[in-house]
Amino acid sequence: MELLLATQNKGKIEEISRMLRPLGVDVIPPKEEVPVEEEGRSFMENAYLKALAYFKRYGIPTLADDSGLVVPSLEGYPGIYSSRFYSLEWGGKEEVETSKDQANIKKLLRLLEGTSDRRAYFKAVVCLMIDEELYIFAEGICHGEIVKSPRGSGGFGYDPVFKPIGYEKTMAELSPEEKDSLSHRGKAIRKLFQLLEKCKHSIFYQKASLA
Ligand code: ITT
Question: Which residues are catalytic?
Answer without folding.
Answer: 66
